[in-house]
Amino acid sequence: MARRTGRPSYQFDTAAVGRRRTARFAAVAGVIALVTGLLGGLIGYQVGRPDATEATIASIKQAEAKRDAQQIVELTETARRVRDQVAPVLAAIKTETTGGHAPDAAQARQWQDVMRRAAEPFADPPSGTTATNVARGGLRAAVQQASLAVDAYALAAGVPTAQRAAVLDVAARQAAEAATIWSVAATQLDQVSVDAGHGHQHVFLDTDPHGGALTPDGAAEGTGG
Fold it and tell me: Is 223 strand, coil or helix?
């Protein structure tokens, strides 16, 4: 009996072999694409995420913004109290130096006490942002200038009558300058308050609109934040 032999290899189903090869290629390609996608995502995450330094800087900035917002509230409250102390003195100096009245030494000493109390909140200021520091520094400078106006008025009370008018004129000009400096600081305070989300805060003095001092804008108090 003759031995049965199989078909020659060249008679195999070439279509089936092709399909198996295609399937293997597709599987390999899928694995490669998956691995490439995972690697790309991992690299993108590593590149895009903030490092420790950036995270620390962001945290510091956030803390500074929160601290500055609170400082602005406190500075606004301080400015209102100091304004109520300083404004009557500046108004009185204007009246006394332009009305032909003789300087009152006892009144001058009382005003000097007021000025010392007004300066106390600015004796040891906290450190804030540049914009807030500018507002605080401007208010402090205005109080210092007002103190000089009071000192000049006090000096006028002790000089000879012939020299009194000149000294009173200096006192009047210093008082006007104090009001102008205050108006600049109040404008800066208004701006930082708006920027911090507290809205407009108009802590201005009642001054002569023709005296050169800045005046508040027309925005309603507390709006714009």
Answer: coil
Nearest to 78, CA basis, from 38, 124, 14: 124
Q: What is the CA radius of gyration of the chain?
A: 39
Express each pLDDT in 194-220 by its tens digit: 999 999 999 999 877 667 889 999 899
Q: Following DSSP, what letter does each residue of 196-211 receive, concatenated?
A: TTS----------TTT
What are the CA-CA distances from residue 177 to residues 36, 56, 110, 143, 185 (Å)? Answer: 71, 44, 21, 11, 12
Q: For 70, what's the count of Cα atoms within 13 Å in the CB-facing half-sphere?
A: 7
Answer yes or no: are the C-beta atoms of 151 and 113 closer than 8 Å. no
Angle at 141 between CA 138 and CA 145, to 5 degrees: 140
Residue 86 class from Cβ within 10 Å (0-12 exposed, 13-18 middle, 19+ buried)?
buried
Residue whose tokens read 């007004």: 118
C-alpha distances in Å from residue 161, one per residue of 152, 167, 173: 15, 10, 19
Kindly report whether the global pTM for this prediction surpasses the value 0.85: no
Q: How many Å apart are CA 208 and CA 190, to the nearest integer?
A: 20
pLDDT one-digit tens code per residue, 92-122: 999 999 888 889 999 999 999 999 999 999 9
